[in-house]
Amino acid sequence: MMNYVSADEAVKLVRSGDTICCQGSTSVPRILQEALTRRAGELRDVTIVSGFNVSEGPAPFCKPEYKDSFIVNSIFICGDQRAYVDAGYGSITPCFLGEVPYMFRSRQIPIDVAFINCSLPDENGYCSFGIGGDISVAATECARVVIAQVNKSIPHLYGGCLIHESKISAAVLCDAPPVAMQFGEPTPVEAAIGKYVASEIPDGATLQIGVGGIPNAILNGIKDHRHLGLHTEAMTDGVIRLIKEGVIDNSLKKVKPGISVASLALGSKEMYDFIDHNKSMEFYDVAYTNNPFIIAQNPRACAINSALEVDLTGQICADSIGEHIYSGVGGQHDFMYGCSLSDGGKTFIALPSRTSKGRGKIVPTLTPGAGVVTTRFQTQYVATEYGIAYLRNKNLPQRAKALIAIAHPDDREALERAACERFGYGFLRLK
Q1: What is 115-165 written as a DSSP string?
Q2: What is the pLDDT of residue 170?
Q3: Grouped pLDDT means (10 residues each) for the chain, 431 residues
Q4: For 399-430, b where at least 16 C-beta lie within 10 A, e where not — what string?
Q5: CB neighbours of 356 closer than 8 A, spacing ≥ 6?
Q6: Would you state the pLDDT for residue 299?
Q7: Is the pTM of this model over 0.90?
Q8: DSSP E strands: which ranges in 194-318?
Q9: What pLDDT is stored for residue 79 in this prediction?
Q10: Which residues fall within 8 angstroms of residue 332, CB to CB, at 6 or more apart?
Q11: For residues 23 and 262, what is the distance between their CA atoms, to the nearest angstrom?
Q12: Per-residue pLDDT, 429
């Protein structure tokens, strides 16, 4: 039987010096985080590890007055912790998302306590991690203590993201709906990018696709495709739409044929209701979904990701703006590598040609301090609203020429001058 207690009673199991892993996605265990914060005066050096979080406002423990009580060590910076880390009160551990479960299981990152936000137990006593399996499954396997929000509003999902009630040390019964995310119609820029990427995706492809306006535009562009498959990190409303319409039927996949595979879900209440107890989809931790050698087994696997900057050689920065860490490596490398190994696989970096402030995203060299998430020899397609460039097997001057052609028109002259200075006659002879 589940040991139901209050949140304040449950977090008494946390000790000074412990490392806590908090579940993420739109299923952050906020009730437990708030109760933990109320113990700030009696705790010291509690490290809090988390990944991709979608939460309403800053995390409750992210206040300067708690700096000696709680140490933030993120693996993917999000809005709930970004300002706190920027201020120097927390940090990030760079890592490929797919390798994080191994880092937990091998005790490279030792986890003492896991905070999760799970579904009600089924008839066999199993709770589903619901819409945030990613790194939480491994965390619960390794933790001394597992504290759960047993949440009536969390959907029960099939696959590998399950925990038996006997493994839960303390449970807090609640009915706290996950954060609902809504995305409007793509902008003209996003729609143009989506059209270019969609034109290169073949029928029968297995997709990894992210969240936001550009991914939605790409999904709109492939609505007439056939026999698509899904093996991804994030399940979204746009993907669900294609599943309902039969565009994604998973019929040609080699890994889990007939099944949509994901690790987390972000979307509307309608989407959460649709995936609840839906046996046509399975959720797993990222050690499985992000394993490049599993990804590669599906034919025509296509990875679609974005970037903050792309330099003229094809280096992709996706985690930082100069020295400022904005997010993290996440699963971009996992899927870019896995899809590049797939028979007929393709990888895409899709981004607007300029930021909202008018700064070019295709640049001569990355901003000093910027991190390379995808190396230049892994980059295949880069798409902006001005076209799509294919870089694989091209030399550096050829790459520069292809990228300049899809940069914002007002940026091209400066980029050409930079390419001439860097590559000399090798670039000039291409003009």
Answers
A1: EEEEPPP-TTSEEE-TTB-TTHHHHHHH-SEEEEEEETTSPP-EES-EEEG
A2: 97
A3: 93 97 92 97 95 86 94 89 89 92 95 96 93 92 97 94 96 93 87 96 95 89 96 93 96 97 93 95 95 97 95 94 86 94 96 95 96 93 98 95 97 96 87 71
A4: bbbbbbebbbeebbeebbebbbebbeeebeee
A5: none
A6: 96
A7: yes
A8: 206-209, 229-230, 234-235, 260-262, 264-265, 281-283, 301-305, 309-311, 316-317
A9: 80
A10: 303, 305, 316, 318, 373, 374
A11: 16
A12: 87
Q: Write down the architecture of domain 7-174 according to CATH.
A: 3-Layer(aba) Sandwich (3.40)
CATH of 188-428, one of 3.10.25.10, 3.70.10.10, 3.40.1080.20, 1.10.760.10: 3.40.1080.20
pLDDT at residue 325, rounded to an integer: 84
Active site residues: 233
Calpha distance 101→99 (Å, rounded)? 6
- Alpha-carbon gap, residue 78 to 89, rounded angstroms: 15
Tell me which residue of 149, 399, 132 sits closest to 262, measured CA to CA.
132
CB-CB contact of 252 with 229 (8 Å): yes
* DSSP three-state, residue 377: coil
What integer pLDDT is reported at residue 210 of this predicted model?
83
Domain boundaries, the chain: 7-174, 188-428
